[in-house]
Amino acid sequence: MRNMAKGSFKVQVLQAREGAIVASVNRLLAEKGYDAMTVDEVAADVGIAKASLYKHFTSKEELAAAAMIRLLDHALAFLATLEAQPKATALERLKAVARWTLQVQLAGEMPALPAQNSTLRAALAANKTYLDRLMLVSDKLGEWITAGQKASQLNRKLPPELILYTLFARACDPVLSLLKAGGKYSDEQIVDLLLTTCFDGLCGHAKLRLA
């Protein structure tokens, strides 16, 4: 029994350390981006030796993948809360998802990955856990997009994948940081502005209140 307890405690310690590593990676990716982040920096931020970090993750690409998996897990948990609201329309759910991604980005918790990086893309493409989570998120959003188009809540002329990619793009929208840096609008106003341009376009059909 004592040996089992020791084993269990060791597993808990390793899990806690791994969680701290991923949390640090997530923050550093949000602050500095993938290219600027280094493995040495992650180890120093967590307060462990680089050799200890490599016991959990063997490369910078694996670290980035772990941060993305963590984000997708949070996204799936949020989607589940929306799924539990049977009276919510497909459009309301999709708007809630877009709002959530913008709020996560404003909170400095959205990993910033390069648009083009063959090494990282290859690592993500080979990571089954990441791909499985991404497929679950995409399938659920795709289900709501289809429902929204059938109910004429979304433009039926737009390809569903275009709407899906547009929603994913909100997670790394550079307009958000530009408006934030300008200091003219509150975080809530920034989110409302970007949601309006995303769902209502730029033609002025919807009224936006910033007061």
Annotate the secondary structure layout.
Layout: H1 2-32, H2 39-46, H3 50-53, H4 60-83, H5 90-106, H6 118-125, H7 128-150, H8 160-169, H9 174-182, H10 187-200
Q: Main attributes?
A:
mainly alpha; single chain; 211 residues; Tetracycline Repressor, domain 2
Description:
It is built from ten helices and no strands. By secondary structure, it is mainly alpha-helical. The chain has one domain: Tetracycline Repressor, domain 2, CATH 1.10.357.10. Helix 4 (60-83) crosses helix 6 (118-125) and helix 5 (90-106) packs across helix 7. The mean pLDDT is 90.
Summarize the structure.
The chain is mostly helical and about 210 residues long. It has helices spanning about 1-30, 40-45, 50-55, 60-85, 90-105, 120-125, 130-150, 160-170, 175-180, 185-200.
The count of β-strands is 0
Tell me the radius of gyration.
Answer: 20 Å
**What distance lies between the first and last C-alpha atoms, to the nearest angstrom?**
64 Å
| Spatial shape | globular
CATH superfamily caption: Tetracycline Repressor, domain 2
- What is the ordering of alpha helices and beta strands? HHHHHHHHHH
Strand content range = under 5%
According to CATH, the fold-level topology is Tetracycline Repressor, domain 2
| Oligomer class | single chain
Judged by helices, strands and strand pairing, the structural class is mainly alpha
Sheet bearing the most strands, described?
Answer: none
Under CATH at level 1, the class stands as Mainly Alpha
Low-pLDDT segments: none
| Helical residues, percent | over 70%
Count of domains: 1
Q: If classified by CATH, what would the architecture be?
A: Orthogonal Bundle
Number of helices: 10
Give average pLDDT, whole number.
Answer: 90
